[in-house]
Specification:
This protein has about 260 residues and is α/β, with parallel strands linked by helices. It has one domain (about 1-230): Rossmann fold (3-Layer(aba) Sandwich), CATH 3.40.50.300. The protein contains ten helices and ten strands. A six-stranded mixed sheet has the order 6-7-8-3-9-10. β4 and β5 form a beta hairpin. α3 (about 95-105) packs parallel to α5 (about 140-150), α4 (about 110-125) packs across α5 and α6 packs parallel to α7 (about 200-205).
């Protein structure tokens, strides 16, 4: 579990986060949503430790990340998996080598143990026949699955994903959403996903926080967001014709 307590983040004269508090639960898909400029990328970077909050605290299992020793911070980093927006695969490495890389960097395992673990996670993301391919030979959806495999290969407690469906077609996006949800449940990870994709919100949004101008405007579940009593949330959710039609149908049903 991750707890965020009243964090702010200030860059010069610009206050990007303005007292945000939230809780991200283990074994659930926790989504951060909001328009461009809402602060969600800075918020995610604070969670990852890439930025230090100006004020407030971020607690991992009730431990304040700002007060950890160097050794404790290293242990925490070893417990984190990250799926980057652009997958961030190494072009000169095969898919197998890309996934193996974190084990070589951070784990004390034999070669056979590492190879077995890589094979296991590649099978989990349905890429058991793609070991020798290079990223340039893989589709966008395959690259995202490789990125997910690399992120979970060391059994992290916390899984962060930055726009995991960016650039993917709707069908492939749905498959990535389903995979992330399944992995979250299987590994019992605290999964935090930064997204603007409303399809993802409606498919896997077990816990959703909505940021607006650096403030936490709303939080709830995918079942609650369609009837949220917040103008900014409504404007964001129903910006597409599909969701406008869904909302109109729901309101008409409520009148019956």
């Amino acid at each position: 579990m991750i707890k965020v307590e009243n964090i702010t983040k200030i860059f010069g004269e610009n206050t990007v986060l303005k007292g945000v508090s939230a809780q991200f639960e283990k074994g659930k898909t926790n989504l951060i949503i909001g328009q461009s400029g809402s602060g969600k990328t800075v918020f995610l970077k604070c969670l990852l430790g890439l930025f230090q909050p100006t004020t407030g605290r971020i607690l991992y299992e009730d431990k304040d990340s700002s007060k950890l020793t160097t050794a404790e911070l290293q242990f925490l980093r070893n417990d984190i998996g990250m799926v980057f927006q652009g997958s961030a695969l190494f072009d000169s490495m095969t898919i197998f080598e890309n996934v193996r890389f974190p084990l070589e960097m951070f784990m004390n395992q034999s070669n056979s143990e590492m190879d077995d673990r890589v094979s296991e996670v590649l099978k989990r993301v349905n890429l058991e026949k793609a070991h020798s391919k290079f990223p340039s030979e893989a589709s966008g959806g395959m690259q995202k699955r490789v990125a997910i495999a690399r992120a979970i290969v060391h059994n992290p407690k916390y899984l962060f994903c930055d726009e995991p469906n960016s650039g993917l077609d709707p069908q492939t996006s749905g498959l990535i959403d389903e995979l992330l949800k399944e992995i979250t449940e299987e590994y019992n990870t605290t999964t935090v996903i930064n997204t603007h994709d409303m399809n993802s919100v409606m498919e896997i949004g077990e816990k959703i926080i909505f940021l607006k101008d650096g403030l936490l405007e709303w939080e709830g579940t995918k079942n609650e967001i369609l009837t949220a009593d917040n103008k900014h949330v409504i404007d964001f959710v129903y910006s597409s014709k599909l969701f406008k039609t869904m909302r109109q149908g729901m309101l008409e049903d409520l009148k019956k």
